Amino acid sequence: MPASNRDVLMRCRLFRRVTAACLDRVAAIAVSRRYGAGERIFAQDDEAPGLFVVDEGAVRVFKIAPSGKEHVLHLAEPGHTFAEAAVMGGFPAPAHAEATVDTRCVLLPAAAFRALLDADPELPRQLLTGMAVWVHQLVAHVEDVVLHDATGRLARYLLEAAQDDVAVLPARKRDIASHLNLTSETFSRTLSRLVDRGLIRREPGRRIRLLDAGGLGFLARGV
Amino acid sequence: MPASNRDVLMRCRLFRRVTAACLDRVAAIAVSRRYGAGERIFAQDDEAPGLFVVDEGAVRVFKIAPSGKEHVLHLAEPGHTFAEAAVMGGFPAPAHAEATVDTRCVLLPAAAFRALLDADPELPRQLLTGMAVWVHQLVAHVEDVVLHDATGRLARYLLEAAQDDVAVLPARKRDIASHLNLTSETFSRTLSRLVDRGLIRREPGRRIRLLDAGGLGFLARGV
DNA sequence: CGGTTATTTGAGAGTCTTCAAGCTGAGTGG
DNA sequence: CCACTCAGCTTGAAGACTCTCAAATAACCG
Fold first, then answer.
1. In this predicted model, what pLDDT tens digit does every residue of A107-126 receive, in sequence order?
2. What average pLDDT does this structure show over B47-56?
3. For A138, which of B65, B139, B181 is closest by C-beta distance?
4. Interface of B with A in 96-155 (CB under 8 A)
5. Res. B1: pLDDT tops 70
6. Angstrom distances, CA of residue B209 to CA of A171, B91, B193, B206
7. Long-range interactions of A156-165: CB distance < 8 A, separation 24+
8. In this structure, how many other beta carbons lie within 10 angstroms of the beta carbon of residue B68?
9. Which of A101, A107, A100, A110 is nearest to A72 (CA)?
10. Where do the domains of chain B lie?
């Protein structure tokens, strides 16, 4: 059962610190959108339709190189936003977006949202810290891709994705591999190696149980 | 001759769209800072002293992996800002910052700047688009590092750095190499290959002349 | 000019990718 | 209920690109 638009906003980092009154004004322009698994949400260089907040499901935001290679910039899960920068900056979408499973999003249409930013003196101040957090995450992503090897990247990903020592993969393995800048083959092999070492166990339905979070932590730090 | 603090702010992307009155209030809290070549500006995990705008010189913002490997996140040249996200988000500096040459910066001290953000209703709105631009650049950087090979990354860098077909390297080659996620050896070899192909020419004093910008463009796009 | 640091160049090794083939598993229709 | 099919996943072998280590050369600074 999907949550109310306002609840979805309240749960996401970007809007968490926004005051109640302010949040009401944002919720007033929100619309709900549903996408089937594999459905395209917008394409690179399109005008961004607005700011999306994921309620249920998952969205992959990805670029395609001239060589044909894909890179998944962001696997947006419930509570995450995407297309924020394009909407606020007013530039076209820098990447493609596609639902990886059946997905519901809250959409804040670009024009209405920008109007709200201009009309409401409080909102920009609150969002600024939200954007700073997003920059922070991007920097962490750069750092991860650049400073760690395949094993370290995978270990870190599993640790971040896990709840109670179980990580549920929000998309196909090849998409997650791409997000970590790996091929699906390398992803698969690296996963097998972690199983052999007794650090994780595969379970049915895209689930992975973490058997030794401490050991994974060492790998994630590059030891 | 260094520019006035206000002029420096006006020239940088973050503050370009800020209204004159607003800019005056920002300039009022600005202080000037000088650093010698190689001098540390702040360290990772320090509290960020404030928002820096480079006036003259260049600053390398970098992370160090547990393995000892460095990655230069950002080579900030005149007109660029750094530590924005840390200041706005209120978290500690996510990276080290060091002047690569004698450098002058304009510093907006963190506490005063945050106070200004709260007091001035206009400022956050203007900065929000500035932050969106910064996110955009980070995404481009991720894309570049991940989707292109050494030759492509170098070609793109040279094209972006060039003015009138001459690129002046703002730092040691090893720092630029690190920014492109290359070792200095690979950087050197790749540069030599471009010289052999007749695309560029080395000139004295960290200068590189672009002989065939079109050809470099093809390489940058991964052809 | 001498000492130091940065860059270039060479040889070899590693990690990851590519290409190719078999496997698995969920959904479909007989 | 069971093939069948198709996409995704796994596994193997070969190769490419970049890195590491080592040494020579070049640039810089006092």
1. 999 999 999 999 998 899 98
2. 96
3. B139
4. 117-118, 121, 124-125, 127-129, 131-136, 138-143, 145-148
5. no
6. 46, 41, 14, 10
7. A156/A220, A158/A200, A158/A208, A158/A210, A158/A216, A159/A210, A159/A213, A159/A216, A159/A217, A159/A220, A162/A210, A162/A213, A165/A209, A165/A210, A165/A211, A165/A213
8. 7
9. A100
10. 5-145, 149-220
Q: Which CATH number fits domain B149-220: 1.10.3300.10, 1.10.10.10, 3.30.70.260, 2.60.40.2550?
A: 1.10.10.10
Tokens of A17: 């610190």
CATH number of the domain located at residue range(s) A148-220 in this protein? 1.10.10.10
Supply the pLDDT for residue A204.
87
> What CATH number should be reported for the domain whose range is B5-145?
2.60.120.10
Which two structure tokens, joined as six digits, stand for B106?
Answer: 């304009």
Residue A188 identity: S
Q: How confident is the model at residue B16 (pLDDT cuts 50, 70, 90)?
A: confident
Q: Assign residue A58 a region: left if phi > 0, alpha if psi is -120 to 50, beta otherwise? A: beta
Whole-number Å distance between alpha carbons of A91 and A177:
28
- Residue B111, token pair as written in the block: 């506490």
